[in-house]
Amino acid sequence: MIVMSAGPTTVSREKLDYMMKNSTNTDIDKNYITIHRETEALISKLVNTNAKSFVMLGEAILGLEAACSSLIEEGDRVLVIHNGFFGYGFKYFIEMYGGIPVMLEMDYTKGLNKDILDEYLKKDSDFKFATLVHCETPSGIMNPIDEICSLLQDYGVLSIVDAVSSIGGEFIDFDKFKIDVLIGGSQKCLSVPSGLTLITISETAESIVLNRKTPIKSYYCNFKNHLEKSGSREFPYTMNDSLIYGLNISLKNILDTDYVSIHKEFGERVRNAFIKSGLKLYPKSHFSNTVTTVLLPDNITDVEIVDRMVQKGVFISPGVGHLEGKTIRIGHMGDNLDENMIIETLKALDEVFLEKNIVLECSLTESFMKYNVFF
Amino acid sequence: MIVMSAGPTTVSREKLDYMMKNSTNTDIDKNYITIHRETEALISKLVNTNAKSFVMLGEAILGLEAACSSLIEEGDRVLVIHNGFFGYGFKYFIEMYGGIPVMLEMDYTKGLNKDILDEYLKKDSDFKFATLVHCETPSGIMNPIDEICSLLQDYGVLSIVDAVSSIGGEFIDFDKFKIDVLIGGSQKCLSVPSGLTLITISETAESIVLNRKTPIKSYYCNFKNHLEKSGSREFPYTMNDSLIYGLNISLKNILDTDYVSIHKEFGERVRNAFIKSGLKLYPKSHFSNTVTTVLLPDNITDVEIVDRMVQKGVFISPGVGHLEGKTIRIGHMGDNLDENMIIETLKALDEVFLEKNIVLECSLTESFMKYNVFF
Amino acid sequence: MIVMSAGPTTVSREKLDYMMKNSTNTDIDKNYITIHRETEALISKLVNTNAKSFVMLGEAILGLEAACSSLIEEGDRVLVIHNGFFGYGFKYFIEMYGGIPVMLEMDYTKGLNKDILDEYLKKDSDFKFATLVHCETPSGIMNPIDEICSLLQDYGVLSIVDAVSSIGGEFIDFDKFKIDVLIGGSQKCLSVPSGLTLITISETAESIVLNRKTPIKSYYCNFKNHLEKSGSREFPYTMNDSLIYGLNISLKNILDTDYVSIHKEFGERVRNAFIKSGLKLYPKSHFSNTVTTVLLPDNITDVEIVDRMVQKGVFISPGVGHLEGKTIRIGHMGDNLDENMIIETLKALDEVFLEKNIVLECSLTESFMKYNVFF
Amino acid sequence: MIVMSAGPTTVSREKLDYMMKNSTNTDIDKNYITIHRETEALISKLVNTNAKSFVMLGEAILGLEAACSSLIEEGDRVLVIHNGFFGYGFKYFIEMYGGIPVMLEMDYTKGLNKDILDEYLKKDSDFKFATLVHCETPSGIMNPIDEICSLLQDYGVLSIVDAVSSIGGEFIDFDKFKIDVLIGGSQKCLSVPSGLTLITISETAESIVLNRKTPIKSYYCNFKNHLEKSGSREFPYTMNDSLIYGLNISLKNILDTDYVSIHKEFGERVRNAFIKSGLKLYPKSHFSNTVTTVLLPDNITDVEIVDRMVQKGVFISPGVGHLEGKTIRIGHMGDNLDENMIIETLKALDEVFLEKNIVLECSLTESFMKYNVFF
């Protein structure tokens, strides 16, 4: 099967093989601990900072929740800047931990707008922190977090950024962008199986976590447990060696390449193919270079296409949230970025549209391949 | 390296190999979903029940916390029956989620005592539920959960049992024992890498979770998300295929063997070796058949021994909690149960004691091997 | 290519992927043996029995021959009840192994008739066993094996049933139907590549095999070799892991669905399409829900149609035996049961008939699609 | 897991990937038929002949039986020349099909001796054919089939040669050696999963099969069915595409290399390692370059070593027949021929012997590696 979904992404055979060493005792094995700590340093390196990074054992959503649980104390006001499904979702985590979410909705078809935020903050900037999403995977929008986080800092508001489907695919400068908490996941651009959450945290945010008035209301969703053991030979619980080995080699390989340009090139080529074919992309601007969300004609649903694609040997993703039923999504990130695999995917899509009597203005496959010529 | 620690345990090469398939999309792949649901049914089968089981993606401690978060509402009184480190630890989870932990301490060197509990409950049984631990890994004690949980039910108190280091090694009859929530982990007797929490839940407990007055204060530590999707083709978040494949084959292999007798035999032989040597076991009764905790002479620490053992190629576990520094632990469970590996471990221990000038009354290795003869 | 032939059927991409693990040593690998034995238990489950099942490495015809070689001793009289190509074919296997085939021919255009058999057996029932076919793939007839096998048992005659193209598509209750030997194949309704023969055997038949006066005259076509190792960790020869993995997941997925109803629905819809079009089906009654055999007009041959269909990307089957040249066959079973694939097939057939100047009363595709509406 | 057993051997990932195409209809797909016929021609090419080759769907033992069933008629005398387990085994197949096996036993620790055969044939050469084995996998002996078959032809006796574990590893010239029937298997030197039997047949033998007085007493074990369809677009039963694709690419790759020299080199190096270590090889001469059989000291069994090797991640083979319990076997053939894999295997063996207190004169690993230097 070709895995071209918006996550989990393909994990290459070589990486799977590398991950599968003999089992060890992660609590005692010195070599494991060395590699684990190195992996954390590589995460920081990937986002161009010397700030601390650590890894939690759980799906990426664990990190989103843990950021809220670790920073919020009863009654804290939090600004939820949202233009998509995951951006909105922070609301629930904030409420769970006694925070007061203040919702700032922006246009769901575009990237976050700095000016609107500026206007807003002029009137009200009394927030402990703000939450936002780098890449909204459901809509395929990449938000300009550099502008937004910098502006937030100007107003003294910390920023928590969900970079689950951008880290390792899009350029992130943790320091310059003025990010305070950055949350990543293993199964998107990093192409490691699901099960790891990556956290990078600023000194300011760390200090808030370590100096709370009240204890954090969770052990598993808890940054403090990790921060306190940072750099030591201990972990808050037993870690999983094969996932860490996978993340480690993945980060090293990514850092050896010009991964930002590669994602940019493939993102443009995939979008071009859909646009040329006459199909509409969901976003009006700020297209993500890791995920493309395509609007479907009225007479067909996402599930019909996704199921037919499975029969043709390709996993792509259906719509999510308010886009359920109406969109399909291609993940062009991490180990999915293989010219042959993308061509196979587009060929299969061309066939499915034909079968479903949806006439395209030109073949997706050909548009994708031609674009390369003029690149 | 030989892994003979009290968890994570050895994962056999064959199992690691079996786990390593091509990566898939766990949200869409029909075959993955079939195997995932089958795995849940196998968990129920292992604990002899038709009650629902499900799997959470995270270290076993996630299950302990999620049980508390899912069942407790503000102000609920919970009885914490403890005779060890993990039994005591439930206190913190209960407090985090607004419950009132009422501590019932018993002798830390023996199994839980039914009569003491009966006396206690006669005076006060107004508890939503009680928490207890099946096998206390730090002390090597196996608690008689059948007696305790049945008694609790007589008083109308639900039971939450931490069976992390007993499931798959000790006999558990979920229905007959009157357990309401049973929590297991992948990295102990099941010998799958760390990263999965196993939950089995009674109808009564499920009904409480599904009919709460207030929402559960966590998304990741939350039974409801899993119960609502039970048996469906969806999960609350992206799952990890290789861990589930590993758990699946592990459960099948365990169910094919008389695993209770095997653990009993090895447990007795390991304990016999230490007793014959003149070393003292920590427990006075209720010895666990999965973990043995050995008291050390005053002139040596656990870390000295554990570190020297590592140099000889064997991982064993140091002490935990109030036994830190004073005890070492051997995990004789799951894939650790290999005569050769145990002999190698005891040989290395014989050598270490000799080097450290601790004179044993007889060789651990020989006692272990001789015992077999008279078995 | 779309595979809609009467076998081998489509093997879904997901299943092919699931089958492809790293190679192993099937003689030594414990996990392989677990899955192999589980697969045998699943076969028994599929045919609703606790009787033993086992798998032979070879095309399904191996099972037909091995049933005869294993049960027959020199001079045994065997009743060959036939209303089709494969039913008749048992004659040859019986003769090869020294048996005396007694031929009972019935109407080739209908299902086997219980009353005729009853009349026959009243006069002569001195047979060691009788052979019959569940689904005659050449003619598209599903025989009422429940009535026939029960009647045979009343006369003390064992039954050997060729269920190669019905197992996994049609309801079979091995015990209630009073079957003694049931033979299945991997490449029909189970949609696993060709290469496995599935055998389920009653205690009576097993006892005959194990207590023969003379040895079985073949090693490869031999039930005894398999029965003697049943449930053990050994096989009569080196097995093929990927086929067994494929059969395993296939059986699980089938057992999770109402596969009988699904085959019934598709069978009716396909037949309806041909009937509405004015084309004649070969059978007059007892239509199979797994294969449809369509009579062709005089001015065209099966090969002409099959070859043209291949050019259009669809594999269907030509006629076999006395129906060679005169019929085409659609296999609507296993992974072939996909609405899209059937529509593609009928569309192509509509086109081919048009090209060949064969005027249909209405479009096959439309009849197929409309029928659904009134279902 | 490292597969270094005497069959099944390793199947490389690349080959597995190549084998896994979309499923097809092997009866109709023209491309499949082309590749299938090409594969048969490649088999003939591998054994340096223009004689016909064909492939049967079943484990290699199918070919041994089918050779006997196809050539023997009631009362035919057959010379069974044996110096090992499989050589002796032909007796049973001959008896099953009504032949009279005449046993010629030679020294089991050496290769077949031409002079002894000559003496024998001088007295009695009235045999329809003789059977013999090229490589006796249980004992690790490679018989000089060139000398033996030529001599047989001088006396007008046809030869049937079991080359299951030599074809693709040892030089075979079908014509010059004067072989009449050569039988190979997929899962040894060709490193394709188990399930295919390869047959090459001389014109003389073919003529005997096609001109029998009585029909062959089996359909599945039957050369005639294959010979009659040879080169046509039909097969006696539905074939398995992925196995044939695997065999095809495997043969092409082998023919591109100097596979005889490679097997010779690795065979010598492995034997050298065992000899230097002081362990005894079973054969006194005629060492096989594909399998090495090592005699064990009295105080240890093959199963103890094989089981311990599994724990260390390596599959090797135990003894077979009269060598059961007393020998272990390394298969150095096909995709097993990887320097790293052999070193890993010998390292693990060095460790196991150490654990079992069996003192070697020098390390197997080192001897293996050093030998290379002086090569």
From TrEMBL, chains A, B, C, D:
| UniProt keyword list | Aminotransferase, Pyridoxal phosphate, Transferase
| Keyword Kinase part of the UniProt annotation | no
This protein's cofactor list reads: pyridoxal 5'-phosphate
Task: Give the matching InterPro entries.
Answer: Aminotrans_V_dom, Aminotrans_V_PyrdxlP_BS, PyrdxlP-dep_Trfase, PyrdxlP-dep_Trfase_major, PyrdxlP-dep_Trfase_small, SP_NH2Trfase/AEP_transaminase
Leader peptide range in chain numbering: none
* Residue ranges of every copy of the Aminotransferase class V domain listed in the record: 24-207
**Any Pfam family:** Aminotran_5
Say which domain of life the source belongs to. Bacteria
Homology family:
Belongs to the class-V pyridoxal-phosphate-dependent aminotransferase family.
Quote the protein name from its UniProt record. Aspartate aminotransferase-like enzyme
